[in-house]
Amino acid sequence: MAAPVDVVYLGPSGTFTEQAVRQLADGDGATTLPVATVEAALAEVREGRAASAVVPFENSVEGSVSATLDALIHGEPLRIVREAHIAVRFALMARRGLSRSGVRRLATHPHAAAQTRQWVAEHLPAAEVLPESSTARAAELVAAGVYDAAVAAPLAAARHDLEVLADDIADRAGAVTRFVQLAPPGPPPTPTGADTTTLVAFIRHNHPGALLELLEQFAVRGVDLSRLESRPTGEGLGQYCFAIDADAHIDEPRMAEALSGLHRTCLQVRYLGSYPRADSRTGTVPPEAAATAYRDAADWLRSLRSASEG
After folding, report:
1. Which of 54, 120, 137, 295 could be disulfide-bonded to 9 (CB atoms 3.0-4.6 Å)?
2. What is the pLDDT of residues 229-285, one digit of tens each?
3. Torsion from C-alpha of 201, 47, 33, 12, nearest 10 degrees
4. Are 51 and 7 a contacting pair, CB within 8 Å?
5. Strand, coil or helix: what is 170?
6. pLDDT tens-digit profile of 8-46?
7. For domain 91-165, which architecture applies?
8. What Å distances lie between residue 108 and 37, 102, 139, 222, CA to CA?
9. H or E stretch including 293?
10. What CATH code would you report for 194-310?
11. pTM of the entire structure?
């Protein structure tokens, strides 16, 4: 049986995901393998053929990547162990010798199309925008003569010997995509003080105040949330779960207590990991939510019990 590769990732090569792999892979000697879909990447890890997977998780313009989130909500559990933030820079590329005026069939991934729609409408009004499975695949097919041009990462132009006709064509400057590295369940990375805990909570009963009850588990313990969104469970119209990013680590008493509260009140809680933030941003922890406050409270409670026993 072949040894598992170190990292599988959403391919093909020449994508922003490959840039994230380069940032996240432990050392230059890591073996990597591109696969066609997010589901295929996670399956490689779940079935033991890869040690980890790197996939896109969230974009600052388009929001969460639903394929990744849905694949994590269902199936065998996996854990997020690291994340990377990659600046999204799109370029218009074509075979050498073709000018912008000759672009009639333009290929790209739907997310890239959404982030460059205004630029393309203004500068290539006659072009037909055609969806492809990835920006890198679009560039590959331009090199093969299937399309006139592609919107893709500049890395793809170098990979396929294409000419960049325009660079930095995103409608909004500063767009960032968040990538996560997934591994089988295991102990989380050591807390850094700038960590995220990701989880999915399934409400037990849909009733007025159900979401408030969920949020209170964090609020009363001083845990800030950086992302909260509803996702359909797939079990019927109107059945939703909530994907959450909390600014704390499971080893912090406040986060551990919040998770315990969710476990008591929710139908199911899927813990997706505690890991360092890529931007190293630390939040403010209220004094009453600090670890020392939890220790003091535990000591006080023990003293009350001891006095009762005496």
Report:
1. 54
2. 998 877 777 778 999 999 999 999 999 999 999 999 999 999 999 999 999 999 889
3. -60
4. yes
5. coil
6. 998 888 788 988 998 997 656 789 999 989 999 999 999
7. 3-Layer(aba) Sandwich (3.40)
8. 16, 17, 8, 43
9. helix 291-309
10. 3.30.70.260
11. 0.86
